[in-house]
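Might I ask for a little of your time on a matter of protein folding? The record follows directly beneath this note:
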Amino acid sequence: MPLIPEFRWPDVSLRKKALLLKHALTVLEAQQAMTTRTGKNILHYTLNRARQHEKMRHYPKGDRIDYQSGAQYFYHCHREDLEREEHGHFHCFLRGKRIPPRIKPTSLPDWDKNISSPMAHVIAIAMNRYGQPIRLFTVNRWVSYETWYDARHITSFLKQYRFTPTEPSRWDVLDQWTAAMVQLFAAQITWLHEERDAQIAAFQKLHPTANAYEDTRLEELSEIPINLAQQIQWLNS
C-alpha cells in the first residue's frame, strides 16, 4: 500500500476560524460538564451507571440518532491498544434517508449490499482511557456495513452533521460534544476521506480480481493523530 502523505493545515479565513473556535469551546465545555471531581470523564458518562464497558456493545444503548439531520453515533471498544493508550472509539454516521437524493452512492457492482440499513460512515473518533480524543480514522465498508459514497461528498455530510435537542436528555451534552468534534476537525476528516479513497484505489489496482470494499486485509484505511490543544493553537495562529 502507498504511504499516506502528511496532512497539511489548510488556509482558512478569520471568519471560519472564529466559527471553528466556537466548536472548540463547545467541545471543551461539554468535556468539563462530563468530568467529575472524582476523575470520571466522558467514557464513564457513556456507561450510564453500568460498571464497565462491554466489548462490542454500543453506548449509549440504541445509539444516538437525530432523525431530522440523520446524524448518528455510538461508542464501543473491542481491542484496547495499550501502545497508544487507546480505549475505544466513537463511530459517526449519516443516515441514508437524510442524505439528499442528488448525492448518489459510489457506482459499484454491489453498491446496495447494505441497503437494508443505509448510512454513510463519517468518521471514527478514538479515545484514550482518560477520556481525551487522540486520533481520527476511516474504515472499510465491511467494517461499517455502510453504503459507500465518494470522498467528494464528505463536505456536504459534515455540514449536515448536527444534533438538535427536541426534549431534555442526559445525552444532550454528549450529542453536542460529538457534533462539535466533527465540525472542529472537518479539515482532517475531509483529508482522511480523500486518503481513504486513494487507499482503496491503490489496493484494487494491485488486486484487480478482489473486491477491495469487502477485503478483510483492508480494515482502517486512513488515520491521523489529533490533539485539542494543537487544533486550538492552529485556529489562534
About this structure: The mean pLDDT is 92. The chain has one domain: 37-236. The beta strands are 59-65, 71-76, 86-95, 119-128, 133-139, 220-225.
